[in-house]
Amino acid sequence: MTSRDTIAAIATPSGLGGIGLIRVSGPAAEPIGRRLFRPSRRLVVFVSHHLIRGEIVSPRTGAVLDDVLVAFMKGPHTYTGEDTLEISCHGGPLILRTVLEEILAAGARPAQRGEFTKRAFLNERLDLSQAEAVLDLITAQTQRGMAAAAGRLKGDLSDRIGDFRSAVIDLLAVVEASIDFSAEDGVESLPGDTLQAFQPLIDAITALAATYRRGRIIREGVRVVIAGRPNVGKSSLLNRLLGEKRAIVTPIPGTTRDFIEETVDIGGVAVRLTDTAGIRQPENAIEQEGIALVWERLAAADAVLLLLDGSATLTAEDRELLAGQEGTPLLAVVNKADLPQRLDVGEIAGLLPEAARPPIRISAKYGAGIEELTAAIRDTLLAAPAEEEPEAMIAHLRHKAALERAAAGLTRARDSLRDRRAPELAALELREALEALGEITGGNAPEEVVERIFTRFCVGK
Ligand SMILES: Nc1nc2c(ncn2[C@@H]2O[C@H](COP(=O)(O)OP(=O)(O)OP(=O)(O)O)[C@@H](O)[C@H]2O)c(=O)[nH]1
Ligand SMILES: [Mg+2]
Fold this sequence. Notes:
Elements: E1 7-10, E2 17-25, H1 29-36, E3 37-39, E4 50-57, E5 64-73, E6 84-91, H2 93-105, E7 109-110, H3 115-122, H4 128-139, H5 143-154, H6 156-179, H7 194-209, H8 212-220, E8 222-227, H9 234-242, E9 260-266, E10 269-275, H10 285-300, E11 303-309, H11 316-323, E12 330-335, H12 345-351, E13 360-361, H13 370-382, H14 397-418, H15 423-441, H16 447-455
Helix pairs in contact: 4-5, 5-8, 6-7, 6-15, 7-14, 14-15
The protein binds guanosine-5'-triphosphate (GTP) and magnesium ion.
């Protein structure tokens, strides 16, 4: 499917740059190129996928606007699948805007957000999960997030979904064949191993759905809050994890008043770390407000690092913090391991939720135990040892929902066949499963889902 209109946009970020790229896609890409571009050497035709040097000349005023490199790429072997023109201008916002205006005057219209990628999807250059991976790749914050997105863009996830779909189609073929037999021997006419074929497939789909939490965390990053009573060394730990003196550290309790936030890469996960004000009985209204805000942050965190002072005994504030983290993964961290220890670590372990890891001893000041701590943070967040990366991972909630629908449909189909109900019912459930799987790669994703995905893109992608 080729669009009738031609779209154009500046594809590089706004601001000054060495080069700025303008992209044009659609049937008028070539005629527009011919109108505006004057090659430095006489050329009869645009040779597809070749760079040519020349000038952009305004057909309206005859003024030379910029000295550029132009690539004309004939569809369908282009990003969008359509004829595409890419003009590399000098990277000034005014130059780019002026050239874009000439392109629009010559018959293109401004592209909407993500419209180039949307056309790539509509022209089947990418499936929907790959289009989502384009955005994941652009927004990746860690090497690991980048690798996961690149895998999805390459088609790792599409291939898995393709395998699931063809397995469901095989089952559907068997079930539909049995519909042609008379009602009494309907189920008997199924090959003996049909029912056994369901469970491994349901398990594989469920396992892929279960990669969502990990995939999302790797894609989006997480929020981790460092909390504890005053002076336990929260700011020292933030500085240690960042590798720079970001937060003020003093021996005076109550040094940190506001949140200090920075992002660090911990085992391939982008962690948004927040250093907070120490929790204590507030002495004034300012402190009271600050402490109330800390509790709010704690409730919204993906994980909490609860810092305790190993050189002191447990206080009421420590206990309050230990008790107050229901539902949020909590890592107890015992700081100041370099000093004589007075904290009863066994007592803390008893106060932690059953599933929690044992407390980790560190010295934020001298750096001891930091590697163990980052490994524990990573494993707590990913809820599995980081080395065991599944082959294909999902990172979007809509994928998880679709996989769960597919697994549920398959389960109902299997149960219905096992209970010897009419095979038509099982066929219906199998079609539902097939449709759910198809939504991931996009064949039959609802229009508003497709719209929502592409409006998250920037203009020019
Ligand atoms: N010996 C020792 N001292 C530490 C360690 N970590 C922090 N400190 C000291 O403890 C004091 C308080 O450290 P901060 O990092 O400011 O503590 P905080 O928890 O941010 O304190 P508030 O911002 O007041 O809540 C400073 O004097 C630090 O040098 C450690 O591992 N060992
Ligand atoms: Mg502090």
